[in-house]
Amino acid sequence: MNFSGLNKTTLLDYPGHLACLIFVSGCNFRCHYCHNSSLVLNESQNIYSEEYMLDFLEKRKNILEGVCISGGEPTLYNDLKDFISKIKEKTNLKVKLDTNGTNPRLLKTLIDKKLIDYVAMDIKSDIKNYNKVINVKNALSLDKIKESVNILKENKIDYEFRTTIVKGLHDFDDFENIGKWLKRCSNYYLQNYKDSGDILYKRNNLDLSLSSFNELEVIKIKEILIKYIQNVYMR
User: What is the DSSP letter of 190?
Assistant: First the structure.
């Protein structure tokens, strides 16, 4: 695994827990609004070794409550399962996984073996516009995305779905369709687009007009979604 970043303490990334945040590089999506483009493009590889990460977690196991594994896309790595197994053996910390849902087989294995305790899955758009938003050269079959959604909706693990909402890529009809798709899911979080300074489309010098939704527009989006999903939150 390419460990490309470490936030040693976070109160934001694992709901209800003091955690650390581990970043891995590489992703199979190229979302224009991505705020971690250097990770997606694999520009920062092997900054930390697995040994360093495990030693750090073992030293902090009596302070931290959990560890978040994010990216990039962690489920691209075949050794993710072994890495999480080592975390559990050495620390027994809770593990949260951030994923785009393209590896439902690994997701199910991690859940069934009780190696992860919480999942945050990104929902990029409604099904009709998914490929437009993820910006891959060849249209992606969305069957795996749908399968991952269904796995999480079985409620065998605590989870959330989340969407970065971007004016220029999303409209109100998209959220109507997302609400119908995710109907009766546990928790759904909205994250308004922000320019981190590492935005992918700017790195590619593309002529796009992407911006945040204003407060009234966010309220309207929430009103659309709560017809289908009881717990809708804004981050």
Answer: E
DSSP state of 89: H
Please report, for residues 30, 84, 130, 218, the alpha-carbon distance to residue 109 in angstroms, rounded to integers and kept in the order given. 26, 12, 25, 36
Asked if residues 97 and 69 have their Cβ atoms less than 8 Å apart, the reply is yes
Give the model confidence (pLDDT) of 149-205 as tens digits: 999 999 999 999 999 999 999 999 999 999 999 999 999 999 999 877 777 766 666
Q: Tell me the CATH number at 186.
A: 3.20.20.70
Query: Would you mind telling me the total number of residues written for the chain in this entry?
Result: 235
pTM of the model: 0.94
CA separation for the pair 61, 48 (Å, rounded): 18
Q: Which domain holds residue 141?
A: 3-234
Measured CA to CA, the distance from residue 232 to residue 208 in angstroms comes to 29
Number of domains observed in the structure of the chain: 1
